[in-house]
Structures
1.
Amino acid sequence: MIDRIGGIILEKKLDGVVVETGGFGLLVYLPGSDLGRVDEGDRATIYTYLQVKDDGFSLFGFLDEKDRELFLLLIGVTGVGPKVAMGIFGRFSAGDVIYFIQNGDAKSLTEAPGIGKKTAERLLLELKDKVKGLSAQVPHGEFAPAPAQGAVQEAMDALEGLGYATNEAKAAIQGIDSDDVEVLLKAALKRLAMKG
């Protein structure tokens, strides 16, 4: 295996870079986030994975060795090849992916190209124990943790089902720090009882 390549970035392409090393110009496929961190003329060390197929060789690379570690775990899952794994890295950071796996969030993983519901569930099942010790990163924006929001919505629906107005239910739940529907409901009902 070619563990890493050090050299000058000769050319940037849409999905990778050409690195000059030892008189050769090697094409290395990089995820979009890493492509944005290098420019032509830069000296870089790229941690690589060499895919050998009947129709040729392909080099996939990362600027961070930990990203490559996760990439190797991903391609070890049935149905996830290097291109699909690169698609995951094109959509999420390694920290996001680890967070989704550690928290059983298959739905967010399906946002990556080539990842359907079954593949996302297989990733969770096969990698949950393997990513335990890896450091996750709480996603931001549209992929911020959803469980708490879902629990809040469920609790609000339950309160509205009991006859409380939407604004009353929202005010009663606001500030309660839990993603457990039962805990939210009990605390909100207690608040509403004190008001009434």
Note: Strands lie at 4-12, 16-21, 24-29, 43-53, 56-62.
2.
Amino acid sequence: MVTPLLQPASLSAPEFYSRLARLYDVLARRGPVVGRLREALVDALDPAPGATVVEFGCGTAANRPYVERALGPEGAYVGVDFSPGVLRVARERGAARGDPGRLVCGDATRPPLRAEAVDACCGAFVAGMLADPAAAVRGWADLVGPGGRIALLDLARTARAGWRALNPAFRLFVRGGSPPGTAQSLGRSPAAVQDERVAAAHRALREACADATYRTLAGGFGRVSAGTVE
């Protein structure tokens, strides 16, 4: 989870998501097809065994088990999120497994990490929440450097025939997951803004990577891109 579309003055974004942290955790781990989407993200990232992988907007670190399985015992997962509440849940879940993990409270657009310590990075359901997702992705590419891997997993409205009938429900889902007042402040549908930002982020990844791949899942609502930075 990262900076949302807009932060109402009455409730900061970290506070908003902290209040919903446990509900978010349930949805993040048990929501429909979510496991398949997370597997697709890690498969696309394809990190080398023993690598250090940073997840931006990690939320309650629902992706952590998938990443760590790919990395093996010598690898390291680092989660970054701006919300103390979701990180608290992530640490509790890790502690219950005997390893609280490396979880950092920070901004995905200003990574609080040393470039030489990062081999790959990823973000799940993040791009639509960033004011300038393309700039963020370019910053992540600079962080991992040439030869580093980047992967994105996002949701946006589908263009697939037979599934477009579900777009209104998806629009309500996006609006319900945004801080109060977001739609009014934007002056248009948060789902439309999310579509634009997801497209911009995935386009920036393609521009930064020599071998970028892209696929859609879950009726076209899920978008996965990955590549090796040039």
Note: The first helix runs from residue 13 to 19.
